[in-house]
Write a structure and sequence with these properties.
Strand content: 15-25%
Structural class: alpha/beta
Helix content: 25-40%
Strand order of the largest sheet: 5-4-1-8-9-10-11-12-13
Order of helices and strands: EEEHEHEEEHEHHEHEHHEEEEHHHEE
Number of helices: 11
Shape: globular
Length: about 325
């Protein structure tokens, strides 16, 4: 998958203002909230840029201070930003709480948001065609008809230009029911060069019952192989505390989870994907790419914020703190 990285990775989707509790408890019980930003695709773009590969994020924001903050944060993290300012819609909002039982709960307020109104015309001419790779997620095809049409248009443009596409399922049950989601995800996965999914998302895509599957290496590897058969022969299944498994051109690689002390698991999956893409685009082997991805996903769990792990000292000295195994997918999501 080695390509000329001068043009970099192109991502598109919604990025929102993020309000996070500064302590343990529900928002209603806290006196202070921390302001940040986050969105699956821009998180990936930031991770790719921090790994030394050029990245561009395309999206929509409202004509409001939240939209200004989104653009400032993403651009300030080293990403090229193409953001349409929508005068009629507001920037989306998400709130993150660390609950007393150890869970992280994220609530999204994105209905009729600026980011959900993405259109094909928002992606400038030549931008897809010049990219080394286009990265998409299942969130965008779930946001609205126009966002779904934008994904379809980008897929057509990428295919015509010979630009590979990566696809992270990123299923949001509150946005799409399982049957509709599977149909829409399959339409993207079958045109992708690599697909990323949690094991539950892989089962959804394949139409299999996760309750009937044993969580053992043979089952995990079969899941990765079957998922790869849908796409361009490459798939990565994120298994949380059980690690990850990749199927690349018929060869399966497994990686145990990197043990860390979890502070905030939100954004770990995006960090994982970003590290894999940056590694493979610069010529890393699947084994090396999986190592880097697992470490990046684990490191993302050691700090607050969707993409702040790149600012952590461990990101600069190559160390990952020891602790319990990380599960990048363990948090509640409530979409509104």
């Amino acid at each position: 998958m080695t390509r000329d990285t001068a043009a970099g990775v192109l991502t598109l989707g919604e990025t929102m203002l993020l309000l996070s509790g500064t302590g343990v408890g529900e928002v209603g019980d806290l006196d202070h909230l921390r302001i940040g930003t986050g969105g699956a695709e821009s998180n990936v773009a930031i991770g790719v840029a921090r790994a030394g590969v050029r990245a561009t994020w395309v999206g929509r924001v409202g004509a409001d201070p939240a939209g200004d903050r989104v653009v400032r944060d993403v651009r300030g993290a080293g990403v090229d930003v193409v953001a349409v300012v929508d005068p009629d819609r507001s920037t989306g909002l998400m709130m993150k709480e660390r609950l007393a039982d150890g869970r992280t709960r994220v609530t999204y307020h994105r209905r009729h948001s600026a980011g959900s109104a993405l259109t094909p015309d928002d992606v400038p001419a030549g931008m897809v065609e010049r990219a080394a790779l286009v990265h998409l997620s299942g969130i965008t095809v779930a946001l609205s008809d126009s966002a779904r049409e934008t994904v379809r248009s980008v897929l057509d443009r990428a295919e015509a230009a010979g630009v590979p596409v990566s696809f992270d399922v990123n299923h949001r049950p509150k946005l799409l029911d399982a049957a509709t989601a599977r149909e829409r995800y399959l339409a993207v996965a079958r045109r992708a060069a690599v697909v990323f999914a949690g094991d539950d998302e892989a089962h959804l895509l394949l139409g299999t019952d996760p309750q009937a599957a044993d969580p053992d290496p043979a089952t995990d590897e079969d899941l990765a192989r079957r998922l790869a058969a849908l796409a361009g022969g490459r798939a990565v299944v994120k298994l949380g505390s059980r690690g990850a498994v990749a199927a690349v051109d018929g060869r399966v690689t497994r990686r145990a989870a990197t043990p860390v002390r979890v502070v905030d698991p939100v954004g770990a999956g995006d960090a994982f994907v970003a590290a894999w893409l940056a590694a493979t685009l610069t010529g890393a082997t699947p084994d090396d790419a999986l190592d880097r991805a697992a470490d990046a996903g684990a490191l993302a769990c050691t700090v607050d914020g969707d993409w702040r792990s790149a600012d952590h000292p461990s990101a600069r000295d190559g160390r990952v703190h020891e602790g319990r195994g990380v599960d990048p997918g363990v948090h509640d999501r409530v979409d509104r």
